[in-house]
Amino acid sequence: MVYPLWAEESLMVDKVLVVRAEHGEIKESQVVEGDILQVVREIARQALEEWDPAASDYVIVKDKYEVSVKLPLTKEQFERYSKYGLRRGQGVASFDIPVYMVSFSNEWQGDSYRDKKIYLVTIYVDESVENEVKEFAAETTRGEG
Questions:
Q1: Which of 25, 40, 21 is nearest to 122 (CA)?
Q2: Which of 9, 102, 112, 144 has the most CB atoms less than 10 A away?
Q3: What is the mean pLDDT of residues 42-47?
Q4: pLDDT in the model for residue 44
């Protein structure tokens, strides 16, 4: 099986971003030291304790999140972002970071699924990426109504 580059590099990451979002709001956000896979396992254990099996599903989804930043990049940005498959487009550069979403409070509304409370775990790249990931986590739990 062929793994994406970030899967191999993620084992070397020493800063991990953990975001807790509930009903469209960021309730908690912290950057921790450690291996991302170990942090995901710890967060999964913590979320399992908060999960109500009678009320919702418990789901962990591994995905990638595309980050886009305007060009030009500084030398520091280029060095940092190039670890994650940096690509250049018209006026922007983009790269993918791994994200793990741990959903422990969710519901089905007809044919649609809604996460109400999640933990989102990813690598910490910089403050601007952190803010983008926080907005993604909040939006994921916003729902309708």
A1: 40
A2: 102
A3: 98
A4: 98
pLDDT digit string, tens, across residues 107-121: 988 888 999 999 999
The domain ranges of the chain are 5-68+98-142
- DSSP-H helix ranges across the chain: 5-9, 36-50, 75-81, 127-142
Going by C-alpha positions, the residue among 24, 25, 27, 46 that lies closest to residue 100 is 46
Cβ atoms of 105 and 52 closer than 8 Å: yes
- Decide if 98 contacts 126 (C-beta within 8 A): no
Q: Give the residue among 52, 8, 24 at the shortest CA–CA distance from 138.
A: 24
Q: Which residues pair with 92 in a beta bridge?
A: 70
Q: Are 121 and 7 in contact (CB under 8 A)?
A: no
Tokens of 23: 């009903």
Strand partners, 117: 22, 105
Q: Give pTM, 2 decimals.
A: 0.86
Q: pLDDT value at position 5?
A: 40
